[in-house]
Amino acid sequence: MTWNGNDTESAAVRERGFGLEVDGRLVPGVSWQPASGGADRLVLLGHGGTTHKKIDYIEELAAALAAKGIATMAIDGPGHGDRAVDLPSSGHESDQDRFAELWSSGGGTAGMLADWRAALDFIEAEEGPRPTGWWGLSMGTMMGLPVAATDPRIRVAVLGLMGTWGPNGSDLAALAGEVSCPLRFLVQWDDEIVPRDACLELFGLLGTTKKSLHANPGAHAEVPRVEVASSVGYLDRYLG
To answer: Can you give the pLDDT at residue 1?
Structure first.
């Protein structure tokens, strides 16, 4: 477990790359700190499917949270980014089947949980423990809900665009009742990928009494920018 020396700095953030080995899996990650230093809070950022830890909107979130004095961290999800795998194709599988294979390639929900736990342990060992939250939609919720349900260090979460559906839908349904932190859940009313009813079912299963549902018209990838900006303020408030 070590920093890899791929450091960059802008007016807003200092970015540092790291690499972990977890149960034989290479887990690449990145940490962002406010360029001014002094962050005393942390948010874990879970990227969506088919993207990676440094996709544009994740880096934009890192900058927006840095402006609030909040550090951030992300890792590549199973089969994504620098963990991409070249799986053999049968030539007739659906996109959903292919995604399920990628998810399984990283050890499924159990493997993903071990990866995130190790990454947070590493960051805390390097930078000290801090109040910690989670932000992640779509596959970011496939990762984030289990993390929020099982790791008491998560104090607040923003989730959404996912339901009792997909490669770990049954895991999400089983773990949802264990989530006890304040939580905001986003739904796109015309989602063409994750069925709306499955999203609403998952929201209903969440155990926390401090939860709110934010629903907007539009397709899966059309989350309004104002909703994302508002979620930054939500995390700031509960971590503060």
So the answer is: 64
